[in-house]
Specification:
Layout: H1 14-40, H2 45-48, H3 63-91, H4 99-121, H5 126-148, H6 160-180
Helix pairs in contact: 1-4, 1-5, 3-4, 3-6, 4-5, 5-6
């Protein structure tokens, strides 16, 4: 027996505001983390001018770190797609009319794709490592922000969501974070 959400015209207009508040919260998590990692790894413009000196050696991801980041991000993508499909089958397509659900799931997918693209396209520099670590923290925090916003389906509608979104997705994000910390 599937539980259906109310039609979209009966949903409160505050859903869009809650979605935007969630996006703002995640932006305010990511930007300070990114800036902190740049400072922690010692990234500044004058250090790039000292190419060829021992002090200019940039940290790089190890091969194991790259593998962990790739496996964590691919697992995160597959987990998000699987949970979205199960929710759509369980609750019907009316769940796709809730902006909190769309912003949350799309944010999860987009952040994991960006994480993979950073690994594939850019050489492993200190700037990229800082961005990878900030992306990994977003992968960990997005499911919890979705829970704070009471994103459908709630635990009463779909209890398995707690397992997938509160344990497995953040664990895969943590694998990405640990992989991004594997530097030489």
């Amino acid at each position: 027996m599937s539980t259906r959400l109310p039609p979209p015209n009966t949903m409160p207009q505050t859903d869009l505001l809650a979605s935007l508040a969630g996006v703002c919260l995640l932006v305010f998590i990511r930007i300070p983390c990114s800036l902190w990692y740049q400072r922690y790894l010692g990234i500044d413009a004058p250090s790039f001018a000292k190419v060829g000196t021992e002090t200019a050696r940039e940290p790089q991801l190890t091969r194991m770190g790259k593998i962990m980041c790739i496996l964590g991000a691919v697992g995160y993508l597959l987990n998000t797609i699987y949970v979205t499909e199960i929710i759509a089958n369980h609750l019907g397509t009316s769940v796709f009319q809730d902006t909190r659900f769309i912003f949350g799931r799309a944010g999860m997918l987009l952040t994991a794709f960006v994480h993979l693209l950073r690994l594939a396209s850019a050489p492993s520099s200190a700037l990229v490592i800082g961005e990878l670590q900030a992306d990994a923290l977003l992968l960990i925090s997005i499911p919890y922000v979705m829970g704070l916003l009471n994103t459908p389906p709630t635990a009463q509608d779909f209890p398995q969501r707690l397992l997938w979104d509160s344990l497995i997705a953040p664990a895969l994000g943590f694998v990405c974070f640990v992989g991004a910390r594997q530097i030489v």
